[in-house]
């Protein structure tokens, strides 16, 4: 006995709309069962993971702070994924964007440079991420190298470069030998939107990216080009769309947004370079992109949901003594549940005997 998935002739729009909610509930039930097996109360875990962060003003600000880089990176990844190209190296592009933008902050440190420093740092962050994203794109278009492997391996190169810089030439000489750069000057810092708040202007960049991407993907020829390239590559070639040009373009956009996320996080949240400037935003953003079904508005909502699990996971680690790795496991379970729900909405499960009878 085996089972097959056959396409449904008519997919219900209601079921498709309800699928993410059902997947979210299923993921919570699975996570609750795991927490119960660990000897903790699932109800208490739900309260710590969800209810408390949503009822605390500080946690709500932190929710937006953590959702900002996830949104920027996931929006960039959606360009690649829509074209059926796999950029798994956004984490490395995030790091390189932060490194290149921070170079200017360190060069101008203590010089009382003007207002031009921060905009140029953001631009350098975008350029750094885009150039780093173009490496796997070039290798794919020129030599046919698989972009999954190259983009992923380049993540570790970027992390080692950052580690070398903050432990070597860029280390703060007055930092008591800690692996970190000097604290950036105020002119090189992304200030909070509200005085005394936690949410910086990177959140505005994320909203702009969401709105622009919604227009580009839904209203422009470039958006149609990505959809056609991903759904029907041969038809895209017959229409005159170059697959190589599309590959280079989407990897540059994806890397540029990841680099913007990196430099925004360093200038707005951290204030200096450190070996760990990301808790894995680049990899988590892959989950966010698919949770949002590669739709800009969906990605924004998914980023908020996943950011909630980050905050709840940190609280659960303190209050319930649950391991922080459980948060990453939950994010993986959530992605699997969403993919399974989409599959069950679009396909019908049929059981087939070995003889072929249904």
Automatic annotation (TrEMBL):
UniProt superkingdom: Bacteria
Matches recorded under InterPro entries: ABC_transp_permease
GO cellular component term of the entry, any: plasma membrane
The protein's name in its UniProt record: ABC-type uncharacterized transport system, permease component
Any one GO molecular-function label of the UniProt entry: transmembrane transporter activity
Membrane topology: Multi-pass membrane protein
Pfam family, any one: BPD_transp_2
Keyword Acyltransferase: no
Parts of the chain that traverse the membrane: 21-39, 63-81, 88-106, 118-139, 148-166, 199-217, 238-261, 273-292, 299-320, 326-345
Principal location class: membrane
Keywords: Cell membrane, Membrane, Transmembrane, Transmembrane helix
Subcellular location: Cell membrane
The organism's taxonomic lineage, starting at the top: Bacteria, Pseudomonadati, Pseudomonadota, Alphaproteobacteria, Hyphomicrobiales
């Amino acid at each position: 006995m085996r089972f097959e998935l056959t396409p449904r002739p008519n997919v219900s729009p209601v079921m498709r709309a309800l699928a993410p909610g059902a997947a979210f509930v299923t993921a919570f039930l699975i996570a609750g069962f795991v927490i119960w097996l660990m000897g903790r109360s699932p109800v208490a875990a739900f309260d710590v993971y969800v209810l408390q962060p949503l009822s605390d003003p500080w946690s709500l600000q932190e929710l937006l702070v953590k959702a900002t880089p996830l949104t920027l990176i996931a929006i960039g990844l959606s360009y690649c994924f829509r074209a059926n190209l796999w950029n798994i190296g956004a984490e490395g592009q995030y790091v390189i964007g932060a490194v290149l933008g921070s170079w200017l902050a360190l060069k101008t440190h203590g010089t009382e440079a003007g207002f031009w420093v921060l905009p140029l740092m953001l631009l350098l962050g975008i350029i750094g991420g885009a150039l780093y994203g173009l490496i796997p794109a070039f290798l794919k278009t020129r030599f046919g190298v698989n972009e999954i492997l190259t983009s992923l391996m380049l993540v570790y190169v970027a992390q080692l470069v950052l580690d070398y810089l903050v432990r070597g030439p860029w280390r703060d000489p007055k930092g008591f030998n800690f692996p970190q750069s000097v604290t950036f000057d105020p002119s090189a810092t992304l200030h909070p939107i509200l005085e005394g708040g936690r949410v910086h202007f990177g959140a505005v960049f994320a909203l702009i990216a969401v709105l622009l991407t919604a227009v580009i993907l839904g209203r422009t020829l470039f958006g149609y080009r990505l959809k056609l390239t991903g759904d029907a590559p041969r038809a895209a070639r017959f229409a005159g769309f170059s697959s190589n040009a599309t590959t280079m373009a989407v990897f540059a956009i994806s890397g540029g947004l990841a680099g913007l996320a990196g430099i925004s996080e360093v200038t707005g949240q951290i204030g200096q370079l450190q070996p760990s400037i990301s808790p894995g935003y680049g990899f988590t953003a892959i989950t966010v992109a698919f949770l949002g079904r590669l739709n800009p508005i969906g990605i924004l909502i998914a980023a908020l949901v996943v950011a909630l699990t980050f905050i709840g996971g940190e609280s659960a680690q303190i209050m319930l003594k649950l391991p922080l790795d459980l948060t990453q496991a939950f994010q993986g379970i959530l992605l699997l549940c969403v993919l399974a729900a989409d599959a069950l909405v679009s396909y019908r499960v049929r059981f087939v005997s070995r003889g072929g009878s249904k």
